[in-house]
Every structure is written in structure tokens, then in C-alpha cells.
């Protein structure tokens, strides 16, 4: 069973669960959090949906002479420059795994001021309301690690203003 | 040097050696004689001198005794001293004693001189024993001289006392004089004994000289004999060795060996003999060489004649055998020709049947070629259809890619809608539901495209396999077509060859008939050749016998000539 079939089965399971969790059914009130779940290598990362502006296909970026190896380059979107952060490099995954699974397919544009950041991920699986705490969530038995974009801002630029653009 | 000169020289040397040995023997005999004479003369003289000395010593002793006795008789008393009392007779006796003493001293001195001279002569001739003897005698006599002088002096002193009438002095000196006279006598006796010993040594010396001379003479004779033997051996060697060489040369020539070295030549008798023998051997060598060459030529010619006759006989026999074989072969050819004609007729019929069979084969090959062409055309049509089908599947793949792209875009669109709905808060909840449904549909569409793409991949692989198999079938049909063409051309060539064979066999039949006629003529000619060959064989056998006799004669001559080695 290849990777696409696994993902398809995961989507179907997610769909079934989503239908089962629709209002009107038997629900258990548990605190949940809306996350955009992405894959980076073999890992699943969850980003608060409020931090995301948009998800777009990754079609390359302009390479810049930057000191941080995790910064792949910049792209222009909606009249702004976004610094593209390679999540694989950010998480210090091996280059061999990078070659085996191919480059990033999607970009997540994050909210916040300069510098505007875009996360290069393998694939954006979708929006999921997941229960959990302590920085990790459960997605059909798989562990989803919560990723806070504030760590990027503290590392690559000024703190984001309180107000979203 | 001639042989006569050598012999004369040998005899001359022998005579000289004999003379030398004789002279040496006479010399040694003379030496012995001279030594004997000298010893005898010296000893006889010495004996006479010693006899005189002893006689003189007795005379002096007796005279002194008479004087003393007369004095003592005349004196009668011891004292006093009275010179007048000595009678004149005693004085005369004293005077006479003095004269005797002087003669005795002279005799003793002369004897000492002679013995000293004898000592020098003995030493000069190398007779050490005799020289020592004479030296001892001289020393004893010299001692006697000294004793005599002392005795003479004491006697004269006593005589003075006698003349003085001093009887006491005379009595006092008398015992000493008596003792001195005894000692002097003993000394003279020792001298006589030494002379006797010297005489014995002289006799021994004479014996030694005789033995030495005898030994030297023996050695001289031995040396002379050895030299004579050596001279005789040299002379014989200088004569016998050339004679042995001449003897060996004559023996070799007698045995027929002329290959040896030539003999020594010279102006002496043997040199002239060697020159004569060398000339004789050279003449024999020339004669033998010419004889051998002529005999060898004769032998070679006889051998060539015999070889030629034998070759000719063999050729005639081979010719007869060949004639026999030719006749037999011609007979076989006659029979073979008849069989060939019959076989050729049969082959012609079989070949005509083969031509008909080949025509049928050509028709069958033509039908096979046409069937293969039809198969190839159908295969090509099938391949074209498969290619068209493959192109359509590729178009479907492109469509699937487009659908996949659309579903991907829908996926992201639904995601962005969900993000916007989340940003809208509660107002966007219903919109979020729609976005979620849209996302689900997009994912399902994407999964469907994945399945379709998988199926299309399998279809594409099947098409590719079919294309390859169809192309392989078309290639094999083409190969079959080529082989059928080859078969067709081969059958046509076989047919042409068989037709040519039919014509050839027909010509063979005609030629065989003509051959039968020609072979009958050949048989008649062979019979004539056989009679001529039999006559030639008889003549060749007679010639071979004559050549054999000639070769045997040449062989005997070669054997005779080979006795001489050149």
C-alpha cells in the first residue's frame, strides 16, 4: 500500500469521523482545537488555523543569500514578500529523506507582520478539530505535534503585532 | 756424421779411458811405494840413531862410574880436601868423559833435528798419525836433551869435586846423579817405544794407502765401464733408431700403407738410404693413385651401366605390367561403358521425374509465400491498431493528470475556504462545513484519478507487450518469407541442374558408344606394344649380365688397389 493510498484511507476515515461528529449525533463534549495538519517527512504537525492566512502550491521561490539555512528564499504574494521557511531543514530532517520523498508541495502563509513567513511543507492534509493537550494531539491514532509559529518569529524577526493584517 | 766416424770416435774414447785408468793405477801404486820406502828409511835411520844414543848413554855411564870408583879407591879417606891427591889418570878420564859427552850431545841434537824434519815431511804428505808420532819422539828427545844437559852439568860439578879431592861433595852428589841417570834412561826408553809405535802407525798407513788406492782404482774402473756403456748405447741408438724407422717404413710399404711420414734424409749412409726409400714409396703412391683412379672410373662406369640396364629392365617390366593393366582397364572400360549407358538412361528418366517434382515444389513454395505476405499485412494492421490504442491511452493519461491537478486545486481551495471560515469565526461555521465537504470531494476525485492512473499503467504495459509481440511476429514472417524465397530459388536451380544433367547424360550415352569403338582399336595396339616390350626385356637381361661381370671385375681391381693406403 503506497503513500497515496494510505492518505486516501486516512481521508476516508477522517470523513467518516467528521460525519459522525456532525451536530445531532451522539457527541461527547471534549475541548478541541482547530488545526491545519501538515506532513513534514514522516511527522505530522498541527498549526493553529488562526495563524494561517492561506495554503498555496509550492512552485519554487527566489533564492536569497541568507545566513539561516532553513530559509529557502522569498516569494511575492498579495503585494508582500514572504520568507519561505523549509520545515524539513527547520526540523533538521536528513537530506536522504528529503530526496526520497521529494521536495515540498505546499506553502502555508502565516499571519503576522514583518517578516512575513511562509512554511514550506510536504503536504497540507486539511483542517482538523483535534482533542488533546500538552503540545500533542491525536489524529486517528497518529500523533500530531503542535507547532507554534511564534518560535519562528522569535528566531527570524520581530514579534508579530497583535492585530492581524 | 757417418757411421764409420761414430764407431771410430767410440773406440778412441774407450782407449783413452783405458789409458787414463792405467795411469791412475800406476800413480796410486807409486804413491804406496814411495810412502813405504820413506817410512822404512826414516824408521831404520831412527833405530840406528837410537841405538847409538843408547850405546853412548851406557858408555858415558860406565865412564862416569869408573871415574868415581877410581877416585873413591884412590882417596880412601873422606877428609881433607887435597887436590894433589887426585891422580892424573882420573883427570884424563874426566877429560875423555867430557869428549864423550860432547859427542853424545851432538848425536842427540842431530837425532832431534832429524825427527823434527820427519815430522814436517809426514805433515806435508798428510800423514797425521806419523806426524804426531814424530812430534812425540821429538818432544821426548828434547826432554832427554834437557835431562842430559842437567846430568852433564851435575856430572861436571861432581868431576870438579873429584879433581879437588872433595870426597864429601862427591858423596853428596852421587845419589842424585844415579837417580838422574835412571830417569834419563827411562826417557830414552820412552823414545824407543814411541819410535816403535810410529813404525806400527807407518805400517798401518801403508795398508790404508793400499786400500784407498784399491778403492779408487775400482771406482775408476766402474766409471770407465759406465762411460763405455753410455758411449756404446749412444752409438747404437744413433744407428739402430734410423734402422728401426727404415724397418717400420718397409713393413708398412709391404702391407700397402703409403700414408706414413717420409723418412729422414741426409748425407750419411742412413740419409741416403732414407732418400732412396722415400723415392720408392712416392713412385708406389703415384702408381697406386693412378691405378685407383682408373679402377674407380671403371667401377663407376660399370655401376652406371648396370644401373641403367636395371632401370631399363624395371621400366620394361613396368611397361609390360602397365600394358597388362591397360588392357585390363580397357576391358573394364568397355564393360563400364555399357553399364554407364544403361545407368545414364535410368538417370535420365529419374531426372525427368525430379524436374516434375521440382515444379510441384515451386508451386507449393509460391502458395506459402503468398500466405506469409497475408500474415505480415494482418500483423501490420494489428500493430497500427495497437499503436492507435496506445496513443488514446496516453491522451487518457493526460486527461487524468488534468483531473488530478483540478482536484489538487480544489483541495487547496477547500482548505483556504476553511481557513477563511475559521477567520470569520461563528459566522463562517456553515461555510466551513461546505469547505470541508468540498475538500472531501476533492480528495475522493484525487483518489479516483490515482486508481485510473494505475489501471492506465497496466493497460499501457499490456499494449507495449502486444506491440512487441506483433512486431516479433511480423519479423518472423519476414524471415520465413526470405527463407521461402531462398527455397524457391534453390528449387529452380535444382531443376535447371537436373535438366542440364539430362542433357549431359544423353551426351554421355553417345560418347560411350564412340568410346567402345576406340577402345577396341587400343586393345590391338597394346598387343603389338607387348610383343616389342618382351623382346626389349630379353636384350636388357643380357646387357645386365655383361655389366654385372664388368662391375665384379672393377670390384676386384678396387680390392687390389685398396691394399695400398695413399
UniProtKB/TrEMBL annotation, chain A:
Q: What PROSITE patterns does its record include?
A: CHEW
Question: What InterPro entries does the database record attribute to this sequence?
Answer: CheW-like_dom_sf, CheW-lke_dom
Q: Name a biological process GO annotation.
A: signal transduction
Where does the CheW-like domain lie?
A: 32-165
Q: Which domain of life is it from?
A: Bacteria
Report what the protein is called. Answer: Chemotaxis protein CheW
- Organism encoding this protein: Acidisoma cellulosilyticum
From TrEMBL, chain B:
> Which keywords accompany this UniProt record?
Coiled coil, Membrane, Transducer, Transmembrane, Transmembrane helix
Record's Pfam families? HAMP, MCPsignal
Transmembrane residues, as ranges?
6-26, 215-236
Q: Coiled-coil intervals in this record? A: 306-333
- Which CDD domains is this protein grouped with? HAMP (cd06225)
InterPro entries, alphabetized: HAMP_dom, MCPsignal_dom
Please list the residue ranges annotated as the Methyl-accepting transducer domain: 294-530
**Do you know which SUPFAM superfamilies this protein is assigned to?**
Methyl-accepting chemotaxis protein (MCP) signaling domain
Q: What is this protein called?
A: Methyl-accepting chemotaxis protein
Amino acid at each position: 500500500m503506497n503513500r497515496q493510498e494510505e492518505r486516501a484511507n486516512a481521508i476516508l476515515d477522517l470523513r467518516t469521523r467528521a460525519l459522525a461528529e456532525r451536530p445531532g449525533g451522539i457527541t461527547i463534549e471534549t475541548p478541541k482545537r482547530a488545526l491545519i495538519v501538515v506532513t513534514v517527512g514522516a511527522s505530522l504537525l498541527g498549526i493553529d488555523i488562526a495563524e494561517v492566512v492561506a495554503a498555496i502550491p509550492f512552485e519554487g521561490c527566489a533564492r536569497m543569500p541568507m545566513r539561516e539555512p532553513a530559509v529557502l528564499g522569498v516569494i511575492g504574494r498579495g503585494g508582500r514578500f514572504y520568507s519561505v521557511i523549509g520545515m524539513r531543514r527547520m526540523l533538521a530532517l536528513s537530506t536522504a529523506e528529503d530526496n526520497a520523498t521529494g521536495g515540498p508541495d505546499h506553502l502555508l502563509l502565516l499571519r503576522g507582520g514583518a517578516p512575513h513567513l511562509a512554511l514550506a511543507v510536504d503536504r497540507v492534509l486539511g483542517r482538523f478539530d483535534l482533542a488533546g493537550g500538552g503540545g500533542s494531539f491525536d489524529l486517528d491514532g497518529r500523533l500530531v505535534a503542535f507547532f507554534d509559529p511564534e518560535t519562528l518569529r522569535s528566531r527570524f524577526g520581530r514579534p508579530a503585532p497583535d492585530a492581524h493584517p | 756424421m757417418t757411421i764409420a766416424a761414430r764407431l771410430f770416435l767410440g773406440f778412441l774414447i774407450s782407449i783413452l779411458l783405458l789409458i787414463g785408468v792405467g795411469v791412475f793405477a800406476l800413480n796410486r801404486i807409486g804413491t804406496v811405494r814411495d810412502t813405504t820406502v820413506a817410512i822404512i828409511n826414516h824408521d831404520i835411520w831412527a833405530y840406528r840413531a837410537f841405538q847409538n844414543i843408547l850405546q853412548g848413554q851406557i858408555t858415558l855411564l860406565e865412564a862416569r862410574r869408573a871415574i868415581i870408583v877410581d877416585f873413591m879407591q884412590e882417596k880412601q879417606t873422606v877428609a881433607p880436601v887435597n887436590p894433589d891427591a887426585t891422580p892424573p889418570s882420573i883427570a884424563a878420564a874426566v877429560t875423555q868423559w867430557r869428549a864423550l859427552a860432547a859427542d853424545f850431545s851432538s848425536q842427540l841434537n842431530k837425532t832431534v833435528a832429524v825427527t823434527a824434519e820427519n815430522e814436517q815431511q809426514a805433515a806435508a804428505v798428510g800423514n797425521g798419525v806419523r806426524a804426531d808420532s814424530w812430534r812425540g819422539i821429538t818432544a821426548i828427545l828434547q826432554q832427554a836433551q834437557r835431562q842430559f844437559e842437567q846430568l852433564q852439568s851435575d856430572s861436571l860439578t861432581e868431576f870438579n869435586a873429584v879433581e879437588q879431592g872433595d870426597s864429601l861433595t862427591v858423596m853428596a852428589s852421587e845419589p842424585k846423579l844415579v837417580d838422574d841417570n835412571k830417569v834419563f834412561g827411562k826417557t830414552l826408553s820412552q823414545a824407543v817405544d814411541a819410535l816403535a809405535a810410529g813404525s806400527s802407525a807407518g805400517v798401518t798407513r801403508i795398508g790404508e794407502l793400499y786400500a784407498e788406492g784399491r778403492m779408487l782404482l775400482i771406482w775408476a774402473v766402474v766409471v770407465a765401464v759406465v762411460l763405455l756403456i753410455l758411449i756404446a748405447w749412444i752409438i747404437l741408438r744413433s744407428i739402430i733408431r734410423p734402422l728401426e724407422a727404415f724397418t717400420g717404413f718397409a713393413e708398412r710399404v709391404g702391407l700397402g700403407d703409403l700414408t706414413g711420414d717420409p723418412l729422414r734424409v741426409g748425407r750419411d749412409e742412413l740419409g741416403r738410404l732414407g732418400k732412396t726409400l722415400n723415392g720408392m714409396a712416392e713412385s708406389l703412391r703415384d702408381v697406386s693413385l693412378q691405378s685407383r683412379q682408373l679402377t674407380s672410373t671403371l667401377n663407376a662406369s660399370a655401376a652406371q651401366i648396370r644401373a641403367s640396364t636395371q632401370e631399363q629392365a624395371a621400366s620394361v617390366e613396368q611397361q609390360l605390367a602397365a600394358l597388362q593393366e591397360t588392357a585390363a582397364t580397357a576391358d573394364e572400360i568397355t564393360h563400364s561403358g555399357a553399364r554407364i549407358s544403361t545407368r545414364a538412361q535410368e538417370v535420365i528418366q529419374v531426372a525427368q521425374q525430379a524436374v516434375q517434382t521440382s515444379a510441384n515444389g515451386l508451386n507449393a513454395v509460391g502458395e506459402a509465400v503468398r500466405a506469409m505476405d497475408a500474415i505480415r499485412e494482418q500483423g501490420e494492421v494489428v500493430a497500427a491498431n495497437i499503436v492507435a490504442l496506445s496513443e488514446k491511452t496516453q491522451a487518457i493519461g493526460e486527461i487524468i493528470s488534468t483531473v488530478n491537478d483540478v482536484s489538487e486545486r480544489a483541495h487547496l481551495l477547500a482548505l483556504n475556504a476553511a481557513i477563511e471560515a475559521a477567520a470569520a469565526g461563528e459566522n463562517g461555521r456553515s461555510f466551513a462545513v461546505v469547505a470541508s465537504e468540498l475538500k472531501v470531494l476533492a480528495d475522493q476525485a484525487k483518489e479516483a484519478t490515482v486508481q485510473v492512473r494505475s489501471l492506465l499503467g497496466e493497460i499501457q504495459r499490456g499494449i507495449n507487450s502486444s506491440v512487441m509481440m506483433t512486431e516479433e511476429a511480423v519479423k518472423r514472417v519476414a524471415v520465413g518469407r526470405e527463407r521461402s524465397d531462398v527455397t524457391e530459388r534453390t528449387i529452380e536451380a535444382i531443376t535447371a541442374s537436373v535438366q542440364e544433367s539430362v542433357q549431359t547424360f544423353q551426351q554421355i550415352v553417345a560418347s560411350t558408344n564412340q568410346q567402345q569403338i576406340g577402345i577396341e582399336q587400343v586393345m590391338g595396339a597394346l598387343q603389338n606394344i607387348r610383343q616389342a616390350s618382351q623382346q626389349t626385356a630379353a636384350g636388357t637381361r643380357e646387357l645386365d649380365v655383361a655389366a654385372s661381370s664388368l662391375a665384379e671385375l672393377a670390384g676386384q681391381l678396387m680390392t687390389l688397389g685398396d691394399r695400398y693406403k695413399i
